[in-house]
Amino acid sequence: MFGSPKDMPLMHALIAGKNSGQFDAAMQEAMKTYHEDVDSNVLIRECWPSSQAFRNILYCAAKKVGEPAAAYLQQTPDADLRLFAQIELVAGLVGLPQHSGIRISAPKINLRSLAGDS
Predict the structure, then answer these.
(1) Three-state DSSP class for 14?
(2) Which residue range is the domain that position 13 belongs to?
């Protein structure tokens, strides 16, 4: 589900949400990841770590609190990521398994700096 040490705050927030039914802290951590992705990830949004974070949160929220979990969709800042999260929300509501997804980051490369130009 998680793949790097910097995912620990999100993992802890998600576990807390699973226990309490409150996923606000997890959403805040996902937003931090989203801003990193927007600034530096050149891959398709489906593979962004933040996409996986929002998907995980919405699936877990649906399993824990049911339909009220849909409120977290409004906090998802990107239409594509919101759609992916909405699919997971519905899967959680109807009892389908969670989609595992693919999570990849590829940083933007400054080609001028590689060529020695400033």
Answers:
(1) helix
(2) 5-115
pLDDT in tens, 55-103: 999 999 999 999 999 999 999 999 999 999 999 999 999 999 998 776 6
Tokens standing for residue 86: 């909405």
- Provide the 3-class DSSP secondary structure of residue 107: strand
Closest CA to 58 of 40, 35, 84, 32: 84
Q: What pTM, to 2 d.p., does this model score?
A: 0.84
What separation in angstroms does the CA of 113 have from each of 38, 71, 105, 106?
21, 44, 20, 17
* HSE-CB for 7 with a 13 A CA cutoff: 14
Total domains in the fold of the chain: 1
Average pLDDT over residues 106-117: 56
Cβ atoms of residues 68 and 25 within 8 Å? no
The DSSP letter of residue 6 is G
